[in-house]
């Protein structure tokens, strides 16, 4: 395989860093669990190289928000209230969690009040933002792969004494 894996690994590490930074700028940090869950992984499948970035499942709700209309799970909000130190007593924390859940059911996520936590004016679509911000880098990495593939093929093609070209196999 063409020496390309390192280029894709670096791209993955850089995208993870950018996702973490954008998440923080959007004001999404209670424990840091989501941000720290982002991991990039490069795998090979035949002649393909695959870059995967994984994270906590709830990241999809942080990224895309939630439509109004249905109560979210109160226990998750209760845990968030306790983690953020908004209330330490369970009864008070449950009351606050219920009020937040009611606002989410009424307004969806992000709520109007959530925008006071952002440093860049955004509260959704951190993944799309990072991919768009890094579009040129992603495209140049793919282009580099194509160039390296062509160079490798050229290095392996050899003409014999009769002018017949063949592809040398490498081990």
Structural commentary:
With 171 residues, the chain is mainly alpha-helical. The chain has seven helices and four strands; from the N terminus they run H-H-E-E-H-H-H-H-H-E-E. Strands 1-2 form a two-stranded antiparallel sheet. The chain has a two-stranded antiparallel sheet with strand order 3-4. Helix 1 packs across helix 6 and helix 4 (74-84) crosses helix 5. The relative contact order is 0.15.
Number of helices: 7
Radius of gyration (Å): 24 Å
Helix content: 40-55%
Q: Which of globular, elongated, flat, extended, rod-shaped describes the shape?
A: elongated
Strand content: 5-15%
Could you report the average pLDDT, rounded to the nearest whole number?
Answer: 88
The stretches of 5 or more residues where confidence is low (pLDDT under 50) are none
Structural class based on helices, strands and sheet pairing: mainly alpha
H-E string: HHEEHHHHHEE
What is the spatial order of strands in the main beta sheet?
1-2
The CA-CA distance between the termini, in Å, is 10 Å
Number of strands: 4
Which sheet architecture does the biggest sheet show? 2 strands, antiparallel
